[in-house]
Inverse folding.
């Protein structure tokens, strides 16, 4: 479970992200309009979506902290996954829109004459966004928060797109098509970030097989705890954010009493719970 301290860090990061991104959006959008640059405007809107995604992350973190209840016996941990998927879908919409805008600009042969404000704002954006990315990703790994890590990669994709635009600013005077081309590159980066975010989140949401190392470790616990081979098998794990439920089968002689079999299974469950802090249910198979 998340500690209150870690949760507060996540919420503070989200509010800070919202504030900084709105400020960056306003400045970048103004510069994009000033120089009639689709790449800068695309980058500005990309930054604004960071605010929306950070708000989604904040809501996801708050909901995920709600305790289990009658309607949700395994807690609300998957709210973070829903927030992560929302961030990914939002990114995909932004990328599709600016792919369209960039193609139109290339077709119409529109060029851009960048000025000093474009350079200053882009440099500020790179520094701020990469700083936010590193802090969010590190905090997300510490908190085991997929949503916070996804938000960090959202920040990083913005920083990378700003670096590309900065390069384009210096090349713009030589190539008329650089702004439209950069718009396509930024869109491609956003699509790639979307793919990475959604692939992992959807995989967890749909359910994944148990890790082989975890499976072998659980078998090893059985070997060290009991004198007989319990033949632990048929492992299934269900993840609910920071809470997981594990089920597996063991094999016991049919001549063993129900009480003895129950005590053995309970001891095995407790050993696994103690080591991994997950819910465990064991099904007993009878063997002759």
């Amino acid at each position: 479970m998340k500690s209150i301290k870690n949760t507060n860090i996540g919420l503070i990061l989200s509010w800070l992200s919202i504030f900084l991104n709105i400020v960056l959006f306003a400045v970048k959008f103004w510069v994009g309009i000033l120089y009639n640059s689709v790449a800068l405007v695309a980058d500005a809107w990309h930054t604004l979506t960071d605010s929306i995604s950070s708000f989604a992350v904040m809501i996801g973190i708050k909901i995920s902290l709600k305790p289990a209840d009658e309607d949700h016996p395994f807690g609300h941990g998957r709210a973070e996954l829903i927030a992560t998927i929302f961030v990914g879908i939002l990114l995909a919409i932004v990328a599709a829109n600016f792919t369209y805008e960039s193609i139109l600009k290339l077709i119409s042969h529109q060029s851009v004459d960048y000025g000093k404000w474009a350079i200053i704002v882009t440099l500020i954006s790179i520094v701020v966004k990469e700083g936010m990315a590193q802090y969010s990703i590190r905090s997300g790994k510490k908190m085991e928060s997929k949503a916070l890590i996804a938000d960090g990669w959202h920040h990083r994709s913005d920083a990378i797109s700003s670096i590309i635009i900065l390069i384009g600013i210096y090349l713009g005077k030589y190539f008329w098509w650089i702004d439209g081309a950069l718009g396509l590159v930024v869109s491609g980066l956003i699509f790639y970030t979307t793919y990475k975010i959604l692939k992992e989140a959807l995989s967890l949401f749909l359910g994944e097989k148990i890790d082989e190392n975890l499976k072998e470790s659980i078998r090893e616990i059985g070997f060290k705890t009991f004198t007989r081979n319990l033949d632990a098998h048929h492992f299934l794990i269900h993840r609910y954010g920071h809470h997981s439920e594990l089920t597996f089968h063991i094999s016991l002689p049919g001549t063993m009493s129900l009480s003895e079999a129950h005590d053995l299974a309970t001891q095995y469950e407790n050993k696994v719970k103690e080591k991994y802090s997950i819910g465990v249910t064991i099904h007993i198979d009878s063997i002759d």
